[in-house]
């Protein structure tokens, strides 16, 4: 059976509720799932409750955008205690950074003559956190651009006229934050790190020194050769291997959830190993 350990809900920049994600996973005959919203754990409670009514094993997760020596990367956290108050305070800082950036982006869009208001963004986002994909959707809905891609290309990507930075943690801080909340830190989609590391092997070795526990090896579009390369690196450092679709609902229209039908099927054996490692980590001092 397949697992999917990389899912986004409408608490970050996905379009489905955590409950709807669980229902979709049941339909796809998936046996293990994790919710990994960007920078927030707001959806976890609903996610776990919805999964408890099914035969699916669900674990709490998160995906934290991080910096590392001039590189941007995403750090996944698995098995975190989403109620941990220290974790929540650290995440609040990221949310404030996002709010500040959203205001800056809207001001820049207004500055180049576009009719767009922060209130419209709040209405569109509804609740949970608001990021660039919401702004991209608003630009699309208002007919200012014809696609999400165009919104990023013309206005929102780095170097585009409405781009603005935000506060993010270093990889070291993200790993420590995840560990303190009882979770394991896993490097998300290593092929998407920007800029591209000269040597993935050396890059990951440096992160292992900071406490990295695993690597996401199964990711849509990664060829068998890419997977093999990542698996070898993981084996060398005794890292756990994970996999997931990075499903965002309609915010990434070409991406689908894992499942045999979608021909993307991270195997269940990975999940069993991950659960064992999480358990060992959480009980290390008992
Ligand atoms: P943020 O976290 O607010 O900086 O937004 C980052 C999100 O934007 C990530 O989830 C990306 O997947 C998404 N994103 C980046 N480029 C594009 C694009 N061209 N089309 C759709 N989504 C994108
Ligand atoms: Fe996203
Ligand atoms: Fe990511
Ligand atoms: Zn993601």
Determine the fraction of residues in helical runs and give it as a percent range: 40-55%
Could you say which structural class the secondary elements and strand pairing correspond to? Answer: alpha/beta
How many whole angstroms does the radius of gyration measure? 19 Å
Task: Write down the oligomeric state.
Answer: single chain
Total helical segments: 10
Topology, number of strands: 8
Low-confidence residue ranges: none
Could you spell the SSE succession in H and E letters?
EHEHEEHHHHEHEHEHEH
Main β-sheet description: 8 strands, mixed
- Outline: globular
Strand content: 15-25%
Average residue pLDDT: 95
Listed once per kind, the bound small molecules are: adenosine monophosphate, fe (iii) ion, zinc ion
End-to-end gap = 33 Å
Notes on the protein architecture:
The model has no long low-confidence stretch (mean pLDDT 95). This protein has 286 residues and is of the alpha/beta class. The chain has helices at residues 18-27, 44-52, 85-111, 118-125, 132-141, 148-156, 171-180, 200-209, 224-236, 268-282; strands at 2-7, 30-35, 57-68, 71-78, 169-170, 184-187, 214-218, 240-243. The two termini are 33 Å apart. Strands 1, 2, 3, 4, 5, 6, 7 and 8 form an 8-stranded mixed sheet that branches. Helix 1 runs parallel beside helix 2 (44-52) and helix 5 (132-141) packs across helix 6. Helix content is 42%, strand content 16%. The protein is globular and about 55 Å long. Adenosine monophosphate is lined by residues 13, 38, 131-133, 148-149, 152, 252.
């Amino acid at each position: 059976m397949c697992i999917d350990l990389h899912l986004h809900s409408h608490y970050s920049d996905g379009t489905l509720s955590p409950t709807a994600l669980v229902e979709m996973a049941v339909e796809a005959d998936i046996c293990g799932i994790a919710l990994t919203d960007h920078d927030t754990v707001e959806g976890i409670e609903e996610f776990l409750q919805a999964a408890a009514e099914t035969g699916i094993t669900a674990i709490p997760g998160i995906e934290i955008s991080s910096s590392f020596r001039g590189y941007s990367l995403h750090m996944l956290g698995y098995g975190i205690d989403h109620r941990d108050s220290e974790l929540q305070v650290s995440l609040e800082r990221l949310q404030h950074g996002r709010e500040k950036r959203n205001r800056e982006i809207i001001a820049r869009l207004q500055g180049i003559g576009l009719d767009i208001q922060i209130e419209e963004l709040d209405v569109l986002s509804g609740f949970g956190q608001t990021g660039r994909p919401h702004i991209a959707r608003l630009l699309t809905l208002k007919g200012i651009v014809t696609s999400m891609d165009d919104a990023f290309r013309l206005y929102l990507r780095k170097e585009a006229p409405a781009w603005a930075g935000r506060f993010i943690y270093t990889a070291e801080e993200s790993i420590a934050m995840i560990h303190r909340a009882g979770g394991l830190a896993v490097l998300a989609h290593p092929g998407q790190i920007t800029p591209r590391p000269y040597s993935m092997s050396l890059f990951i070795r440096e992160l292992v020194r900071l406490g990295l526990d695993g690597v996401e090896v199964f990711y849509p579009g990664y060829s068998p050769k890419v997977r093999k390369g990542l698996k070898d690196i993981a084996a060398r450092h005794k890292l756990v291997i994970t996999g997931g679709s990075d499903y965002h609902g309609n915010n990434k229209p070409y991406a689908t959830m894992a499942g045999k039908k979608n021909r993307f099927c991270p195997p269940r054996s990975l999940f069993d190993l991950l659960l064992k490692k999480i358990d060992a980590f959480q009980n290390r001092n008992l």
